[in-house]
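Components:
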Amino acid sequence: MKSPTPAPYSYSGAGARPSLLYEVRKVLKYQSELNPEFGKDVAQKAHGENLFECIQCGTCSGTCPVSHYMDYTPRRIIAMVRSGFEEEVLASSTIWLCASCYQCTVDCPQQIKITDIMYALKQKAIARHLYPSKFPIPIMAEEFYKNVAKNGRNSEGTLMINMARRTSIFNLFKYTRLGMKLFTTGRMALSEEGVENKAQLRTLLRGVEKAEEEAR
Amino acid sequence: MKYLYYPGCSLKSTGKPYEESLKAVFAALNVPLEELKDWNCCGATAYMAVDEVKSFALSARNLALAEKQGEPAANGHVQFVAPCSACYALSLKTQHYLDENEDIRKMVERGLKEASLTYEGKVDVRHPLDVLVNDVGLEKIKEAVKSPLGNKVACYYGCQIVRPYATFDDQARPTSLDKLMEAIGATPVEWAMKTRCCGGTLVGTIREVGFRLNYLILKEAERKGADTLATTCPLCQFGLECFQPDVNKSWQANFHTPVVYFTQLLGLALGIPEKKLGMQRLFVPYKKAQIGG
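Structure:
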């Protein structure tokens, strides 16, 4: 699927502004560029076939504590998912700003599991590396995932170092004071935590992975 | 019957005072509590963002280990106590999805089988607040109080203790923590932020957004005249307390609000020494208020 290419335009002199026509063309998307299967696909992944019963009432957007920071509100995301705006949805900040408080899910008059839809979208965006570059939330998710898959438990120190490595090393300095304070109050260990029976954990996750692959 | 304690990663690190106070309070009230052996991380919100079924498998391992280790209660189910709201919500979510979705159940069962584990669904996932209020009971707690607290407390439940699954309290307006605080002499303030999201890990990722959510909770508590915030979740406590200087800076505020685990407050009222409750580990020191003072 290709994204729309804006038509070239020419300046007619210093300070000239792009024409309104250009602005409109830039955001135009043709139906042929949409992915008609996207909605069904997401609904299935999120176990929410009732996604198509959304009445676009906006309760989710109104009740969401972070909707005003999102590039598309949850209501818009649902509409876009249904219509097949795959790339826009997967590259949006919305899915990552969702902190899983489940307020929309419990308030939705159509009982749509919106939080689970957000999770399905996050999984798709991670699998295709379609998230804003250096955006710390998906990077944290990936590092957390690796940490837990390997050790069975999360270690905050390792997580912070790996995140700083992948976002900005200056982030480490931001947390120096906090880290020291946590350490001196005995609220952060520097050792790497883990389960004893790592073999069992690995076998479990590998078994699930095989089953997932077969189901695909 | 013993309650099986599933600490999760937070109660072993940033949430250490929660673990210390929880153990001390259960011991003082003669409620047997035993740690789940070789528990693993629940996956929290981050693991779920990468792989859903594996995230359920992680929780299923804990539930399977619990079934093996625990002694069942009168209802035939092992009582699995998860104090961290993320662990609590995810363990419940796993149970629901294993019950309701055949595809997921089959995939998770395959993994469990290969790892020589079995899970038959005979586990009740409980929050310690639920155990204290509904199993131990407020009457017994009232009788055990040695030094009632006079604080005005804003009871902050956080999101995942009632959402998406509310098992022991009202989903929109929970009251168990308010009742518990009353039972130990404190005065809960009436406020609308009880289950408003604190943003969780957003304080460490998209900080501005996290700070705003935390600011709103701290500000509303202050406006309602609360001198202490009582929390039930290690992530809420971490954000609201440890990031208070950052919240102050970004919102030109001046909060010095103690953010204390409900088990710490209960422990103080039961006359347990402060050190045993991890009070010395708080960044913003708690001040006991005299009744009527």
